[in-house]
Amino acid sequence: MEIYRSPYEAYPFLSDASDDLRCDFELMTDRMASGVGLLRARVSDEYLRNELLWICQLIYHMNPSLRTQLKVTEEEKERLFAASQQLRSQCKDRCRRFVTPQGCEETCMAHILRVQGKELVRLLYRHIWQGHAVEPLLLDLANLLSDYFFYLALRLNADAGIDEIDFVSRNYKIQD
């Protein structure tokens, strides 16, 4: 079967075979980096703005990792982990269980980025199940991105004076 390739194709790998997840990973990281840029535009705290710029660039450095080679470092992973833990310590009393993704607009954007981090992890595992090697560092970073944006969401709601709303599942009972 021959597939039409538009001379205006926006990205050269868009016509990759449907089971080739590399382009999907690249598109997902592009979407996530763009979302980080949008969130950064709405955050006024200069420290967070600088951190979000660094994270945006980190995501773009992750972008070609499945197609070429991993060009992110253990030091960057440690920096992201430290940033996540700092946010966690600032918000430790805000979340004891699962929270409903709500609050100020910036918080909702952070929750969307949290989920996109999980989507990256899921895609990486699918790539592994197809028989491809994935560096553990890339999995760690994708998981840490989700973690970071969860705690950032809590911090942004705290800064806005908005309480978290616990979500209590009808299916899963959490024991105290």
Structure description:
By secondary structure, this protein is mainly α. It has a domain at 22-84 and 101-160: Up-down Bundle (Hypothetical Protein Ta1238, Chain: A). The chain contains 5 helices and no strands. The protein has helices at residues 22-42, 46-62, 74-90, 105-129, 136-160.
Number of strands: 0
Pattern of helices and strands: HHHHH
Gyration radius (Cα, Å) is 18 Å
Named at the architecture level, the CATH assignment of the domain at 22-84 and 101-160 is Up-down Bundle
What is the helix fraction of residues, given as a range?
A: 55-70%
**Hey, roughly how much beta strand do the residues contain?**
under 5%
Task: Indicate the CATH topology of the domain at 22-84 and 101-160.
Answer: Hypothetical Protein Ta1238, Chain: A
Low-confidence stretches: none
- Would you tell me the structural class of the helices and strands? mainly alpha
Estimate the mean pLDDT confidence: 93
Biggest beta sheet summary: none
Tertiary shape? globular
Tally of DSSP helical segments? 5
CATH class value of the domain at 22-84 and 101-160: Mainly Alpha
- CATH superfamily grouping of the domain at 22-84 and 101-160: Cobalamin adenosyltransferase-like
**Through-space gap between termini:** 58 Å
